[in-house]
Amino acid sequence: MKVRYAILTLLLFIACSNRNTPQAVTDDFIFNYYKLANQQVALQLTAGLATEKLEAEIARLQEVRTQDDPIPEMPKMEYKQIGKETSTEIENLTHVLFNYLLTIKNQSGETTHTRNVVITTESIDGKWKVVNYDEY
Predict the structure, then answer these.
(1) DSSP 69
(2) Which of 75, 77, 88, 101 has the fewest Cβ atoms within 10 angstroms?
């Protein structure tokens, strides 16, 4: 019984933690966009150019997706933050850039692709948002 309360307390703590930080928004974006391939949820975390990119991608994919399509088996996606940089620009705008290494594995666990992803965040009206992302 005590274990159940400890787990419940931990989950409550996580749910109530501040997700309005550059790190948390970036983690949520990369988890939803890359790991879950859920563009709609990732879109809620974006502004500016990142929003434009995602909206264009969603529009392109609507042509090939239908409600009756079975969900394809997803490859295993792992990601690891490998860098972070903060820059202050004109008018005290602060951007925080994150660099991630994505590792894509097939169902048997073999690495098939690796990608570097750069995610740029900015505080807009007191909320941190992903304003750009790029892969190379």
Answers:
(1) S
(2) 88
Q: Which CATH architecture has domain 19-135?
A: Roll (3.10)
Report domain extents, the chain: 19-135
3 residue type, one letter: V
Question: Which amino acid is present at 87?
Answer: S
Report which DSSP code applies to 73: P
Q: What share of the chain is helix, strand, coil (3-state, %, to 5)?
A: 40, 35, 25
Is residue 92 exposed (0-12), middle (13-18) or buried (19+ Cβ within 10 Å)? exposed
> Using an 8 Å Cβ cutoff, are 39 and 59 in contact?
no
Q: What is the token pair recorded at 87? A: 């820059």
